[in-house]
Amino acid sequence: MEPAGDHGHGHGGNGVPDEPIANPGLPAHLPRPTDVDPQKEKRAEIQVAALFGLSAIFTVLFAVSYFTLDVGDNWSVFDVLNVGGSTVALGGTLGLSLLFIGVAITHWARKLMGDHEIVEMRHPAYSEEEDRQRALNDLKMGFEETGIARRPLIRNSALGALALLGVPAVVMLRDLGTLPGDKLEHTIWGRGGQKIKKVVDGKEVTVTVPLMRISRDAIGTPILASDLETGDLVNAQPEVLFNPERYSVELEEVEGVNLQINKSKASLILLRMDPADIKPGKGREDWDVNGIVAYSKICTHVGCPISLNERTTHHLLCPCHQSTFDLADSGKVVFGPAGRPLPQLPITVDDQGYLVAQSDFTEPVGPSYWERDYDRDRFAEDD
């Protein structure tokens, strides 16, 4: 008696055919109306060009709106939404300009570009030279199928619409702020110890501002060197942000936006360690106070605030991209994408035992910027 499933041909031992379902192939190609009717083809071409033209018009309207409408302008129709007319005009014109370009390209592809069905067989990840040449030929064929060479109306209208998209970018450059000059190179820590002129009893005299005390962040109390024990880490700010009168600073300099700007550059990390663990860089032998060191709190990679301390190694970890700095060794980068060490603030104590800054940071804090003249290998050369 023969076992079931042994009859017939083209079957495996499990009774399943080698090819259970035959490959039906591609369905017959159906031409589009624009493929067989020259009038419809021409009409589609004009429609695409018109869409590109509308995009160009709205790009020009964007520039007109920018120069004719002020930020404070408003129209009654937008009162309920509390949206300014300038905002609506700029957003609407630029949005419609981009929309019409997208619609034009989509309409062009659906109506006029080649729409032949193509089968691409699976192949190994590695490409042979023959396959690479075939890919180049496919790109060339795709360019030819766009018909851009024989459709100058679409080509020229598309180039015009795309070229005008540069206008909004150029126009909006007017909204850039003034150049910062050397503001990025200095912080409010430098206001301590300066000589300034004041009027006392009707006479102009020169006085020396006290060295800037280091205060606890948020509460503003000055920090005594004796307050810190080995391993303590403290987030700090300059005292001037809490007591501007002591340093002859106008109140408006430490309020509102100015306060945020000053805090963003002056934020500080204090860490106390065993003085024997410190490896001071050249010229930094007196920058600590009995093992207390002060560094910028702003990561030199992209400016994140950092305060994650590894107590046994004195490494400071940035939580954003894991840049790690050695606070015992001039803030050098030991891991991560940061391109330069954390700036160190030279500190000492005043006659009352409070921690004070000897001067401002000796280099710009925060991320690098184009104008910054910095040799990233300087610290390595100093060792």
From TrEMBL:
Cofactor: [2Fe-2S] cluster
InterPro entries per the UniProt record, alphabetical: QcrA_N, Rieske_2Fe-2S, Rieske_2Fe-2S_sf, Rieske_Fe-S_prot, Rieske_Fe-S_prot_C
GO cellular component: plasma membrane
Record region (Disordered): 1-41
Compartment list: Cell membrane
Entry keyword Secreted: no
Domain of life assignment: Bacteria
Residue intervals of the Rieske domain: 287-356
Lipid bilayer topology: Multi-pass membrane protein
SUPFAM superfamilies hit by this protein: ISP domain
Gene3D superfamilies: Rieske [2Fe-2S] iron-sulphur domain
GO molecular function terms noted in the UniProt entry: 2 iron, 2 sulfur cluster binding; metal ion binding; monooxygenase activity; oxidoreductase activity, acting on paired donors, with incorporation or reduction of molecular oxygen
Residue intervals passing through the bilayer: 48-69, 89-109, 153-173
Membership in a protein family: Belongs to the Rieske iron-sulfur protein family.
Role of this protein: Iron-sulfur subunit of the cytochrome bc1 complex, an essential component of the respiratory electron transport chain required for ATP synthesis. The bc1 complex catalyzes the oxidation of menaquinol and the reduction of cytochrome c in the respiratory chain. The bc1 complex operates through a Q-cycle mechanism that couples electron transfer to generation of the proton gradient that drives ATP synthesis.
Listed name of the protein: Cytochrome bc1 complex Rieske iron-sulfur subunit
Organism, as annotated: Nocardioides humilatus
